[in-house]
Amino acid sequence: MDQLTGFQRDLLYVIAGKDRPSGQAILDDINDYIEQPVTHGRLYPNLDTLVEKDLVEKGQLDRRTNYYALTPKGRRALQRRQEWVDQYVDV
């Protein structure tokens, strides 16, 4: 996780909170959070990086739509990250 950008970590949280979201669903959620609109040109290369790092699985919902889901490795990494954050932040 320390090798990821903050944006990539945010993507992991969005994916974890959804059931196999499409790229568009991820984009919609991330744009609700980030002030500067995220473009497809920024989103998809970052999703591909997460897939290459085996943190996210990419599959097809139909011919035009892919889904994304955390892999077991991604879920463990996100859980470790959250435990690390929780030791410093008590909200």
TrEMBL record:
Name of this protein: PadR family transcriptional regulator
Annotated transmembrane regions: none
Domain of life per record: Archaea
InterPro entries to which the protein is assigned, alphabetical: Tscrpt_reg_PadR_N (IPR005149), WH-like_DNA-bd_sf (IPR036388), WH_DNA-bd_sf (IPR036390)
Organism: Natrinema saccharevitans
Transcription regulator PadR N-terminal domain: residues covered: 12-79
